[in-house]
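Why Metallophosphoesterase? Reviewers of the renewal asked for a concrete example.
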Amino acid sequence: MAIVPRQHPARPETNVPNRPRSLDPQELGFTRKGPIGWLAPLLLLSTGLRAVLHLFFGAYLDKRELQNALDGDVFDHSTTATGELWLDYVADLGDGFDATYSVAYLLSQEELEVDGERLPRGRLLLMGGDQVYPLASGDGYENRMKGPYRAALPEAPAGVPRPTLFALPGNHDWYDGLTAFLRLFARRKDGHIGGWRTEQRRSYFAVKLPANWWLFAVDEQFGAYIDDPQLLYFEKAAEQVGPDDRVIIMTPSPTWVKAQDNPHAYDAVDYFIRTILAPTQAQVRVLVSGDLHHYARFSGEDRELITCGGGGAYTLGTQNLPDHIMVPPKETLTRSRSRSLRYDLRGTFPDAPTSRRMGWGVFHRIPRRNANFANLLGIIHTLTMLAMAGAASQGGNIQRLFSIPLVLMLVLIMAGTIAFAKPDGHARHWVLGVAHGLVQIAVAIGGTWVWLQLPFRDWPWPGPLAVAAFVYGPLIAIVSSQVVALYLLVAANFDVNLNELFAGQGIEDAKSFLRMHITPDGALTIHPIGVDRVCHDWVADPDGEPHAPWLRPATPLTAHGIEPPIRIN
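Here is what the prediction returned.
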């Protein structure tokens, strides 16, 4: 497999559109989208159905086998004028405009001053997965990822090599079987996103870096397995890797963390290291991933395991991360697994105390960010109240208890709360789901008792129905949504529905990305960069240079080091 050397094509100067003078979509060429309401009923249903379809039919939708017909190039970015290379890593970026563009704006700057040190823009931009939310589509990529990044770096800067973009698909990129992903990142020979050039031809890639460093980006497809054409591609790439080389591995998900609950989660990555890289005697020094929307670094005697999913999606707290992990986990059934080593938690962003404080915001953010979810709860509780009130007017106690409408509503509530807890064999999921359902039923009983004490039920029809719909429904929606918020806060302490605790809030702040530097002597320095507050007030810059961002923040964005630079000699 021949290495494809890095090229610097001439910058296209013809038919360059005028810089927008406002934030109007007609001028920007895309629509700025707000943060996704992750608890929206239709979104929950749609995402859940797609996840189920991939569970049962993922193999039929898997386009990785077909990629064997595409170019199998290994990309050479090892030769630079100074012998060094800067590269950036960002993941989980295609959500609301303000958070996504705040990170894109910082990545596009010629240099960043972080804690007194000037860090140049990366010659490579690595996107680690979930470039769009909630579902992959052409319009989704255009409005939530491509448009904002094109606005951040409209053209390649003059007089310097054009930066290159590589992207690895995450689970949300996979929901259409990679159709839109490949169309955007891998199909066109002259592909580019704004000033960044795209080179890859497949959903996975290998890149030769300066000073005997390599980058291997592995596409696991929902963590299921690594397909044979992909293994063959990396086997051929590994033929050029020697015992003095060091390797950075990109994966779509931090399986080293997830393997603590699911011991098989890390098996595919471990297999890749054992079968592809171990024969070369090269050292795997860094594993990096997104998927979990925070920054966390586990450090061991041989390598750094870094999660950095702060590119734009809702922030996920770090309070439940363990102090250390064993990788691979000793519980895995793989007989030929690598030797299990201990990795200690060294840095997080946001940190655990801040994450806990963020969690308490669930009470006001759930109903405010997820109005349709609260409305659904109000409808369910109103129907349950009407069924209970109707049953109360019937004959004996047994007849009341087994009223068909009432039974249906009670079953719906219990089934919904248990499913929401995602029972996966752990007793705590079932216990918390059932407890949540019983509390919601208790709220319904209390609401029915209050309803029966009021004169509304004796009004002529449709008076009671109108009062139930326009008075009782909105009030009980607020009460029941607060019950959900309380449940999420309690359940998160038992590591149940932690993701929903933060997804429901849609927190846009506490974003993060990595800026890495390979020096001529072979040292790698990783700068984890955090942004405490994203910008919500943007101003068009119609008179800027061609490569300058179309929009600039009304107040400067501030980036800082999450922890001291990580130096790997």
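Residues 6-16 have pLDDT under 50 and may be disordered. This is the kind of structural detail the renewal will allow us to pursue systematically.
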